[in-house]
């Protein structure tokens, strides 16, 4: 009867020891087997694993991609326009043995503290080497890649792999907003004044060119009109001369009739002439004209 309880106790103790020597490694984690604080085995494959009860212990670390938000920090680019940058990083533990040696019992919390320091240092160094316009433009993707590449080497000493670094927010400090907006407003007003001045200059140039073209066109038209008028006068005089040469008496008669037509109009001024004036030679009778001619 006494052997029964003793056997039961031994059986229970054996079961407890067996269960305490078995542990399960989840597919989302990696495990270290420690013996008196020293790493003796690394379990990265999911499934059952064994350890020595009471002597060895198991430490588990997350094998998934982890995210770390970096506290907002203030950077000063090349143009001295201070910016407040808010960023985050994606990382994972790739070497649990080295990770354990680097952070000890601090685990993820200690690793993230050191990772923050690395990322903040790289962010200040990279963003401080460019202007604020580069940070706020599409070139920020290149800057984020440079921050990641700069931090990879230091993070590898912690057993970590930095997968990505992103700038979530890039703003001006609240104390600098008014002065920055004022400077931007002054710059835009200066650009507007420059554009107006260039526009006025172009308008003056176009106006002067149009005035010159107008003068040239009018002058050329007057020249051509004077040439045409001179040619017409020459032709008229030639016709008159030819007509006078053909019949001088008829030509004189024709010119007298034209003079009568232009002179004897109701709206003209009054003329006082002698009846025997030569102006009326062709208005007298033939006898009067002969007598006048004889005189």
How many E-type strands? Answer: 8
CATH architecture descriptor name of one domain: 2-Layer Sandwich
The amount of beta strand, in percent, is 15-25%
Q: Roughly how much helix do the residues carry, as a percent range? A: 55-70%
Assembly of the depicted chains: single chain
Radius of gyration (CA) equals 57 Å
Helices, by number, come to: 8
Fold and architecture overview:
With about 300 residues, the chain is α+β, with helices and mostly antiparallel strands. Among the domains are: about 10-60, no CATH class; about 65-170, 2-Layer Sandwich (Tetrahydropterin Synthase, Chain A); about 255-295, no CATH class. Helices cover about 55% and strands about 20% of the residues. The chain has 8 helices and 8 strands. The strands form 3 sheets. It has a 3-stranded antiparallel sheet with strand order 3-2-5, with no helix packed on it. A 3-stranded antiparallel sheet has the order 6-7-8. β6 and β7 (about 85-95) form a beta hairpin. α2 crosses α3 (about 105-125) and α3 (about 105-125) packs across α5. The longest helix has about 70 residues, at about 175-245. It is rod-shaped and about 185 Å long. About 10% of the residues are buried.
